[in-house]
Design goal:
21% strand; 625 residues; eight-stranded mixed beta sheet; 24 strands; Ribosomal Protein S5, domain 2; five-stranded mixed beta sheet; binds magnesium ion; Ribosomal Protein S8, Chain: A, domain 1; 3 domains; alpha+beta; binds adenosine-5'-diphosphate
C-alpha cells in the first residue's frame, strides 16, 4: 500500500484557515477596519457594494507599508505586531494573529495600494486565490487602500451560505459601529452602493454614541467612570427610560476590543434591576481597561471572546460601577432637553460629569473600596454605600397613623403640617435634599413642586404614589400578608368565564396583598375582605379594575404574578392627575416617596420626579439676556 498523507497546497490550507476568520463580508470589514486602526490612521473610509458581496474597501491614512511588507502581509502568520510568545500578554493592537489578510486573499480577489510617508512611490498589488497576479510601483497618497472583491468567488459553497443583502448589510453596519464606537477620535465614514450612510467627525465618546445610535439618546445618557489600580471602566449607560424591548444598543469593550460576554452583560443588567421591566434592554457602551496581562484575547480567532484572569472581580466591579452611576445621575432625571436643540449645547447637558460630581464620586465608599487593589468582592455582598437615602424604612409599611382609606397618603387630622418625619435625618436621595421648612405647592392638580438644596423637583403625584404603594405592597407580601379588613356586607362579583378563570388563579396572591376573595358558584366570587386602608364600598370596582390592569400587564411584561398584581394595584389605587391635594397629603406624598428604597422611578421604570437644578435654570435665563 502506498503512503497516503499529503501536505495541502498553500491556497487550500489558507482557504480552510480562512473559514475561521472570514465567515461573511462583515468579518472582512472588521479585520480591515482594525488593521487601519492599528496603522494609526486618523481617517478611515469604508465602501461596500452589494452588502460587501462584490466589494469591501477600506481606505486609511495610516502609516502604510513598504514594498516588501506589502508582499509579506498576505502570508499566513505574517504580522508586525508580535514577535515572541510573551508579546501575546502585552497586546495593545487589535490584530496580532497575522491571519486576516492571508485569509481574505485566499477567498477573494484583493487589490492593495499602500505608501509610507517617507517613500516617494507606493506599491500596487493584485492577489487572488493566494497568488500574486500583479505588482507595480504607483503614485498614491500615504496610507493604505485594500479592496476585497467577489468574496468566495472560488468557494461557491460558502458563497451560497451568505444571507440576503439586507442581513449581510446589518452585520456590516454592526461591525462598523463597534469599531467606530471604540475610536471616537478617528474619523470614519461608511458608503454603501455609492450612498454615504455614516460620516463621523472626530469627537467625544458621547458625540460618537449619538451620531451612531441616534439623537434620541441625547440627554438620556449617564456617564460611568470608575478608576482603580486594577481596572478602569468608563463609558455611558442609558437612563432607565431608554430601555427597549429588543436587545440592541449594548456594547462592551475590553481594552478597546468589542467582546461578547453573557456574564458581564448580566452584571450590567443586574444593576438596573427594578428600574426597568424585566424583558427590556437599556443602552450601554462601556469600556473596561485593564492590564493586558489580566486578559487572554487569544481564545477565539475573531477575538470576541476573551478570558479574564479574575472574572468575578470584573463582574462585581462592573455591577457596582453602573449602580453607582445610576444612583448618582439617572435617578434624578433632569429636563428633557430634546425639546430645544439650542439647550443641548449647554455645558450642563453636554458635559455629563461636573468636577463637583467627580469629587463626590471620589469620596464615595464605592470608589474608595475599589481603589484598594482587588477589593471588588466585598462590594458585591454588602452593596454598602450604594443606598444614598438616609431615612430608615418603616413609616409606610405597617399601620401608621397617617393613612386614611384609599389614597394611602391622606393624613389624620391631628397630624402636624411640616413633613418632617420625626427623624433627625433630612429627607434625601442621592445628592438631592428636600428643604423641609419650605411649603409644597401643587400645580395643575398633578404636580408637586418641592424646593431642594440645589433647586427644586417636580413630583408627579400619581407616579410617586405608585412607587410608595408598590414598596408597601411588596414589603407586605414578602414577609407578612397585609392586614385584612373583613367586609360587613360582602359584595358578590359576577364575571365572564375568562375573567373568572383569571381571578381564580390570583386568589392566593391577592390574599397576601390583603384581598380575601372566595369562589361563589359558577364564575361568581364574594369579596370578604380588603386591605385595611381601602375604601369600603369600592371593592367590586377595585377587583374589576385590577383584572383589567393585570391583563394589560400580561400582554407586555413577563413578570411574576405577584409583581403584576402589585403593579396593577398601585396603578389603580394611586392618586390620579387632576386630584387636588391638601398640604398634609402633599407632605405625606413627598416624605413617603423619599423614604422609598427606590424613590426615583415607578415600578415600571418611569421617573417619579424631575429635578431642576439651579445651574440649569440659570443657564436658561442667561440664554435670554
Ligand atoms: P495582524 O493584524 O494580526 O497583524 P493581518 O493579516 O491583519 O494580521 O495584517 C498583517 C500585517 O499587515 C499587519 O501586522 C500590518 O503590519 C500589515 N497591515 C495590514 N493592514 C495594514 C494597513 N491598513 N496599514 C498598514 N499596515 C497594514
Ligand atoms: Mg489584522
Amino acid at each position: 500500500m502506498p503512503d497516503i498523507i499529503q501536505l495541502l497546497p498553500d491556497n487550500i490550507a489558507n482557504q480552510i484557515a480562512a473559514g475561521e476568520v472570514i465567515q461573511r463580508p462583515a468579518s472582512a470589514v472588521k479585520e480591515l477596519l482594525e488593521n487601519a486602526v492599528d496603522a494609526e490612521a486618523t481617517e478611515i473610509r469604508l465602501f461596500v457594494n452589494d452588502a460587501g458581496k462584490s466589494l469591501v474597501q477600506v481606505i486609511d491614512n495610516g502609516k502604510g507599508m513598504s514594498e516588501t511588507d506589502a508582499r509579506m502581509c498576505f502570508e499566513r502568520h505574517a504580522t508586525s505586531k508580535i514577535k515572541k510568545i510573551e508579546d501575546l500578554f502585552h497586546i495593545r493592537t487589535m490584530g496580532f494573529r497575522g491571519e486576516a489578510l492571508a485569509s481574505i486573499a485566499a477567498v477573494a480577489q484583493v487589490e492593495l495600494k499602500s505608501k509610507r510617508a517617507e517613500d516617494e512611490t507606493g506599491t500596487y498589488l493584485e492577489i487572488d486565490n493566494s497568488v500574486v497576479r500583479k505588482q507595480e510601483i504607483i503614485a498614491c497618497p500615504t496610507g493604505t487602500s485594500i479592496s476585497m472583491k467577489n468574496l468566495f468567488f472560488n468557494v461557491p459553497a460558502r458563497r451560497n451560505f451568505l444571507k440576503s443583502a439586507a442581513a449581510e448589510m446589518r452585520h456590516i453596519v454592526e461591525e462598523f459601529i463597534r469599531v467606530a464606537l471604540s475610536f471616537p477620535n478617528i474619523f470614519f465614514s461608511l458608503t454603501s452602493n455609492g450612498q454615504q450612510l455614516f460620516h463621523l467627525e472626530r469627537g467625544s465618546l458621547k458625540q460618537r454614541i449619538i451620531q451612531l445610535l441616534g439623537n434620541h439618546y441625547n440627554a438620556r445618557l449617564v456617564s460611568v467612570q470608575e478608576n482603580t489600580d486594577y481596572l478602569n471602566i468608563y463609558g455611558f449607560v442609558g437612563k432607565p427610560e431608554t430601555a427597549k424591548k429588543t436587545r440592541g444598543d449594548q456594547y462592551l469593550f475590553v481594552n478597546n476590543r468589542f467582546i461578547r460576554s453573557a456574564y458581564l452583560n448580566h452584571a450590567v443588567m443586574s444593576a438596573y434591576q427594578e428600574m426597568i421591566p424585566a424583558d427590556s434592554f437599556p443602552l450601554y457602551a462601556l469600556f473596561i481597561d485593564l492590564d493586558p496581562e489580566q486578559v487572554d484575547v487569544n481564545v477565539h480567532p475573531t477575538k470576541q471572546e476573551i478570558k479574564f484572569e479574575d472574572e468575578k472581580i470584573v463582574y462585581a466591579f462592573v455591577q457596582a460601577a453602573i449602580k453607582h452611576a445610576l444612583a448618582q445621575f439617572s435617578i434624578t432625571p433632569t429636563l428633557d432637553f430634546d425639546l430645544d436643540p439650542s439647550i443641548q449645547n449647554l455645558d450642563a447637558v453636554s458635559k455629563p460629569v461636573s468636577d463637583e460630581q467627580k469629587a463626590s464620586i471620589a469620596a464615595s465608599s464605592l470608589y474608595q473600596s475599589f481603589t484598594q487593589k482587588n477589593q471588588a468582592h466585598f462590594i458585591e455582598s454588602g452593596n454598602a454605600g450604594l443606598k444614598p437615602w438616609n431615612i430608615p424604612k418603616g413609616r409606610l409599611d405597617g399601620n401608621t397613623d397617617q393613612r386614611l382609606p384609599g389614597a394611602g397618603i391622606t393624613a389624620n387630622k391631628e397630624e402636624s403640617l411640616p413633613f418632617h418625619t420625626g427623624n433627625s435625618q433630612p429627607l434625601s436621595f442621592g445628592n438631592i435634599q428636600l428643604i423641609e421648612e419650605a411649603p409644597l405647592t401643587q400645580a395643575a392638580n398633578t404636580y408637586i413642586i418641592a424646593a431642594t438644596n440645589r433647586g427644586f423637583i417636580l413630583i408627579h403625584q400619581q407616579l410617586a404614589h405608585e412607587r410608595i404603594l408598590y414598596e408597601r405592597l411588596i414589603g407586605a407580601s414578602a414577609d407578612k400578608p397585609a392586614a385584612i379588613q373583613k367586609s360587613l356586607f360582602p359584595v358578590t362579583l359576577q364575571l365572564s368565564a375568562p375573567d373568572a378563570a383569571l381571578l381564580q388563579e390570583l386568589i392566593g396572591e391577592l390574599l397576601l396583598l390583603g384581598y380575601l376573595v372566595e369562589p361563589f358558584g359558577k364564575d361568581s366570587f364574594v369579596i370578604q375582605g380588603t386591605p385595611a386602608d381601602i375604601d369600603q364600598g369600592k371593592e367590586k370596582e377595585i377587583i374589576e379594575n385590577l383584572l383589567e390592569q393585570f391583563k394589560h400587564f400580561s400582554n407586555e411584561l413577563k413578570l411574576s404574578k405577584r409583581e403584576k398584581l402589585a403593579r396593577s394595584l398601585c396603578r389603580q389605587q394611586s392618586v390620579k392627575p387632576g386630584t387636588p391635594l391638601t398640604s398634609e397629603e402633599m407632605n405625606n406624598l413627598a416624605s413617603g416617596l423619599f423614604q422609598c428604597a427606590q424613590p426615583n422611578t415607578t415600578p415600571a421604570g418611569n421617573p417619579t420626579f424631575i429635578e431642576f437644578k439651579k445651574e440649569y435654570l440659570d443657564q436658561l435665563f442667561r440664554k435670554l439676556t
